[in-house]
Design goal:
The protein folds into two domains: 249 residues, Aldolase class I (TIM Barrel); 64 residues, no CATH class. Helix content is 41%, strand content 21%. It has 15 helices and 17 strands. It has a nine-stranded mixed sheet, with helices on both faces. A three-stranded antiparallel sheet has the order 12-13-14, with no helix packed on it. A three-stranded antiparallel sheet has the order 15-17-16. Strand 12 and strand 13 form a beta hairpin. The longest helix is centred in the middle third of the chain and has 17 residues.
Length: 385
Amino acid sequence: MRAAGLYIHVPFCQAKCAYCDFASYAGGEALFAPYLDAVRHEMRRRQARLPHACTLYVGGGTPTVLPVHDLAALVETARRTFGLDADAEITIEANPGTVDAASLRQLREAGVCRLSLGVQSFDDEMLHTLGRIHTAGDARQAVYDARGAGFDNLSLDLIFGLPGQTMGQWQESVRQALALSPEHLSLYALTVEDDTPFAASIEGGELPAPDEDMAADMYTWAEAALAEAGLIHYEISNWALPGYACQHNLVYWRNEPYVGLGAAAHSWYGGTRRANVRLPRDYISALEKGQDPVAEEEEIDRALEMGETMMMGLRLLAEGVSFARFVGRFGVSMDDVYGSQIEGLVSRGLLEQMPDRIRLSQRGHLLGNQVFAEFLPPLAARSSP
């Protein structure tokens, strides 16, 4: 198997945010040591199928709730087991409330070269609504500490379309983020997930429902503001200075192989998509018994792989999907497979057809889901032999 992206999931956090439905759990300190042992066991199981990783991304949850020496040791074990190059992109997600100057120095010395800070907002009122454990001041301090530790590849996450969030609040958060000169920004529209405190509060009338039109206006404003600041809008939700696009996430968007380790982690390689068991205790138990922690498997046939390659690749706004790369991968031209869909989407102003690729139009940036649906095979076809 060719080099793949490597993801490690750390399902622990200091406090569960009100909007979050990720596989993350507060108060799991007693599981830290057995969980890390289980991840190392899974590394050994997967190593035969993944002799070489091109990137490493440690996400969560909040990886930085782990003792920093344990987190640094995890990175070193992954680097050694999967043959990561000395200059490979290694990213760790962090909550600004869980890092300080000393811990960030240790991570940088361990080879972590990219830090993704979940700031979400620079407005303390919004942070309180979200249930975040940090303040705007904590976020700024985390950036200063990261720079002092030697991080020169820094990403900040922000959320827009929050209940009660005004355009002015959103603009101020973006301006404060830009004032910190990050190399990368990720801007996400709030999705209200079922069975979260946010969903219950909105249903009960304690919070207003998100305003989709306002969220669209926020996104459009941010596109212009970030372009003016010199950041390239390289993916629907992501902007970066030239040379700072997230290499690990490009693996996903190009629909290339990746391996996920840890509870609830997903993998795709060898024509099969896999998902590990969700609960940390179940994950630990499986590995302690010498069992594979995979809970679900789905064979990805050629039609679905082609459709997902189109769907994911079109998220890359400038790169899009290359005609030559499609032919090289599937041995058939994109036009032979999707000619009618492409023609229809171009005529609706949602796609642009370039000499060497297709990509979303400016209008398509806000209507991407309508475009992506055109390339996925019908469920009936997917389930047939």
